[in-house]
Amino acid sequence: MIAVITDIHSNRQALEAVLADAAAKGVRRYAFLGDLVGYGADPGWVVDTVAGLVRETGAVAIMGNHDEAAVRGEAPAMREEARQALAWTHAQLQPEQRAFLAALPLSVQEGETLYVHANAFAPKDWEYITGRIEAMRSLHATNARYTFCGHMHEPMLYHLSGTGKAGDFKPQPGVAIPLLSHRQWLVIPGSCGQPRDGNPAAGYALFDPQRQELSFERVPYDAETAAARIRAAGLPERLGDRLLTGQ
């Protein structure tokens, strides 16, 4: 069983809750799909935690666009709130933490499974998968049966049959989904640290490659504390406020 976690965005409280939930469900391996940092108040703790799991358990970790920008210390193409948070994040991170982020790959393929932050067709360009067209473009760009993407903060599942028939649906939390072997699948787990689908609970996905089964999980966490830490750090208040509503 693999826990696929993405878009933590320096949210210690959300990641702690997700890791505890995953461990209770018997998870032994983790894949982190990028954007470990940005927005939130605990970038160093999050980077150290993920780096520890990479080192100690062989977890997969991918670079996200916020990770890349935090290493550089600037993000000219991003919104003002994101730029402020990333400049602050860069100053908070220790050199070894920035080095860990800088060394992360854009994608990792293990057998039939591809892990990437944004998409499979142009990982470095950080283009979003906003609907079926982009999802099919991503699936056509890889031979992987299962593609896991972050970047989008709303959980979604896409599939493509061998005859070219495409489909998509919004998953329900905690419901096991059989991943039929005659289809390719693209999974967007949703954000751990900053959900934007109207549900403030932290999101992640559970993937069982042996059973060819997937479930999307939601975990309540102490969002009030995460928001208070953002305010206490002097970061834009909206970055904390939106944690309380999942918007």
UniProtKB/TrEMBL annotation:
Source domain of life is: Bacteria
Q: Which CDD domains match?
A: MPP_superfamily (cd00838)
The coiled-coil regions, if any, are none
Q: Which residues form the Calcineurin-like phosphoesterase domain?
A: 2-210
> Pfam families given for it?
Metallophos_2
The family classification in the record reads: Belongs to the metallophosphoesterase superfamily. YfcE family.
Q: What is this protein called?
A: Metallophosphoesterase family protein
